[in-house]
Amino acid sequence: SYLDGTAIASIAVNARGQAALVIQVPSEPQSVSFVATYLGDGSAKASSSSPDAVLITPTGSTVALSVPQTNVLRVPTTLVATITPASAGGTVTFSVGNVVVGSQAVAKGQASVEWTPQGAGAFTVSASYSGDRGTPRGTATNQVVVVAETRADSITVDPVGAAGAWVPGGSVTFMNGTSMALATSSTSNMPVQLAESGPCMLAGNRLTARSGSGSCTVTALTRSGNGFSGAANTYRVLLTPGWQTARLAAPASGVVNRGAVVKLGKPNLRTTAGQLVTWKVTAGKAQCAVVFTSDGTAKLKARKRGPCNIRATAPGVDGQWNRYAVYRAYVIR
Fold first, then answer.
1. For 128-140, how does the pLDDT look when each residue is reduced to its tens digit (9 = 90+)?
2. Which of 122, 136, 213, 221 is least buried, going by the fewest C-beta atoms within 10 A?
């Protein structure tokens, strides 16, 4: 007899000692408990089974297991189970082979644990869902492979035009205003990503110093791939004052004809650092003189034969730019 509170049917036992019954599933969600009672005969006593509870739900549940198909020995990876419907509660127990990795309560349709493979080879990963009121239990499995540890990657950062590659963890000196392209490569052939912190500017692979004091840090890194683990190197860039420049009109050193008036620079000429350029005759004041037109244009006046040396200067900017100085040596004839 099969019972659910009341007798629902009586089925004869077959020659193998079995009896089977097909029942109508209730139309409303509920938990149904079944007990099978054997009435006995001349060769066996009567007995009853333990209750077997069956959960009737509006819809079934699905369990999906997400795990990388290839994993690395002793490198953590995340096992994720997704339960449908997302409103389900309960817990998921994760196992690798016959070893339980961990259990996690379902939240918003998901549960996850971290697994660190301790051996190489092929493994079966399973996620067993406990079920919840209105949601039946279920299980999902995946076949995965664990491979041996990857090799450490090596990164090279080699400034274009420099004497050699930068040394990881080392330092280099950069002058304010200096700009240099950084050529990068890795043993793994994985892309090298560059990052900068401090008073420098990194545009693509070009680094520009924007201060004449302090330092900035350049980081080069690769992701895991091609059988290599990721790597990260840092380099310290020490910043020093840079050299100012100015757009002079003065001709190169050489011969100037007596009586000539040569333009040296435009009115109120300033350097690239915004410092005012001044002119001075340093030798041969009898032979030449620096004069200014009404609009402030600086010119050299060649008076008489002989040597004439002049200098253009501008003050430095403390901690940022060196003092500017440019010389010309002329011969008046």
1. 999 887 788 899 9
2. 122
